[in-house]
Amino acid sequence: MTDSPITRVARATPPGMARQVRGLSDRAIAWIFVAPTIFLLLAVNIFPLIWTIRLSFTNFKANRNRPVEWIGTRNYERILTDSDIWLSMQATAHFLFWTIFFQVLIGFTLAWLINRKFKGNDLWTTIIVLPMMLSPAVVGNFWTFLYQPQIGLFNYVISFFTGVDPSSFQMIGDVNLAPWAIVIVDTWMWTPFVMLICLAGLRSIPEYIYEAAEIDRASKWRQFWTITVPMVLPFLMLAVLFRGIENFKMFDLVVQLTGGGPGSVTEVTSINLKREAFEKWRTGYASAYAIILFVTVFGLASIYVKALNKVKER
Amino acid sequence: MTRPGLLAATILSAAGLAASTAAAEDLTLCWAAWDPANALVELSKDFEAQSGHTMNFEFVPWPNFADRMLNELNSGGKLCDLLIGDSQWIGGGAENGHYVKLNEFFETEGISMDDFAPATVYAYSTWPKGEPNYYALPAMGDANGWFYRKDWFEDPDIQAAFKDATGRDLGVPETQMELMEIAQFFQGREIDGQTRYGVSIFTERGSEGITMGATGALYAWGFKYENEPGSYDMEGAVNSADAVEALEFYKELYETATPPGYTDSYMEQSLDAFKSGQVAMAMNWFAFFPGLYADPDVGGDKIGFFVNPPQKVAASTLGGQGISVVSYSDKQDAALEYIKWFAQPEVQQKWWDLGGYSCHVDVLNAPGFKDSAPFAPDFLQAMDAVQDFWQEPAYAELLLAMQKRLHDYIVADQGTAQEALDMLIEDWTEVFEDEGKI
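Above: the input entities. Below: the structure tokens describing the complete assembly.
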């Protein structure tokens, strides 16, 4: 009879060490295994967070050799009463709402279509998910050329369908169009992600439920609203959560496309925060700003996860 | 030579070689990646040959130059032994201890600041401003200037059309308003079967572009940062009626005379617009003029240059940099050797010949200087009336505030010029209060 791997390891363990381990409780052994991870978590996540909270109550500037002063909640007061910060929050909210809206709408529709069995189904799925595989920096540069008013393909396509002069409008240079320009690009890039999650949801619905509905003579419309939508909803909500968190901290794509401009109309909070922290070097102020954003995302995400759990329980 | 003499010479030369080899260092010079940097690489080969040191170069593209280098300095990095840093960094470089103070070195080596153009010494070397505390040697004189399509300006048909449209002769603009008139004339005009545009100006949002462009107009209208230098009293200076008029002018120039889509353009985009034949005129730093003049498509006889036109006063936006020794470098002696070598008049002359802009008076006042390049007279004229942005240690905060207010007004069309300048004073006041200056 051959030894099991565990027996072999036990036999290879020196008697001294085996005695030591034998003397430890299960809880102690568990702690030994978990300790490195906990230490890493404390060092990489918790300590910087606490340090940031501490800095947020000071006037510290990382580029200056001057004594750091404790200024209480002044940074927080300044941020919350700064109209420019609120405009930045509005730009983020606009971006967040419309990207999620379009991605869910188009992503679900595509998933529903792809879920139908048809010839070339796999090929179309591959083509659709391609944008998601590109680097945001590449996508940003690529779309900057597409949006170029004199040579950009996007303007010529719009011109072809509407008859408007292609150089008469600037997608990334116009205050009214720029917020939509970044929504379009993010939607183009990340709709496939939502589609894949929805597709997983659609494919998880057992066929017999539809067969039972057919026997009960439920219409296709009724089947869609009473079977498909409720059963895909938890998946959809998960996709919304992922995209929400991701877009709240959107940086690279917007920097490449508009740099936050024209003016400040597309200056989402992450760009604004980066400018405060690493261009103006207002470290204390930027720390307070980061804490406010963290609390906002954490709070909203917690509420959302509770709602998601309730939907799952239904 | 006698045998003992030969022996002595051999020993001496061997000792000299050994000393030079022992002291040989690998120096790194940091600067922006642009045309003059290539000229400096060429020039520095002489230094390598003479000193035995090896020169390495770290050139960063302009949009990332400030971020990259200021991070390096703020973190006490040892990447750069020598840094050709922007003029606005001098305050932070001095107060934060990034740059070595050079007074004693200049005195010991007999380097006189009187040998360099006063405007460049003031702008690139001194902190506090105008005080005889030197943290850099003027290395690259520069200002914002203009260039135009001389062949179009000399075309009889275009000249006639301009005369019909404006009632005056087409020529190099002598005021800012004339510049706008010419730019608007060319806007959308068909020349050689292609649609052309008036002018390419700086509108970039991310780093310093729109501020460097718009201050060209502001200074020409007599803009001042303070009512009294050093008082930080900005009300009535920054937002004066003339400043408002200048800003409105720049906005109108942007809206009525630039190519479509030039909402975020700086040096590269300005050069591209001109080289691709899109615009009749463009603004850019003198540093690019040698390259433009040599361009096979739009250079030579096709290009002309002019200094920033005055409106109420003659003034140009200052560019350019001084060369400093980084205080965190372990090779400061060798770095100082480079500065000593670079300060020599013959090296400065070669620097100009290769395409760098020397600030040395022997070069600038040489009889043949004005004829040495088509843009040389304009360079001298510009450097006589240059004005620079704040050079305070908090310059980055001051600059980003101005970038935002100007871009919001000029490109994003939000609010009025008066509101933009009023808000700019509020922003700057907050910065100076934080700094404890007011």
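Note for the figure: The CA atoms of residues 228 and 241 of chain B lie 18 Å apart.
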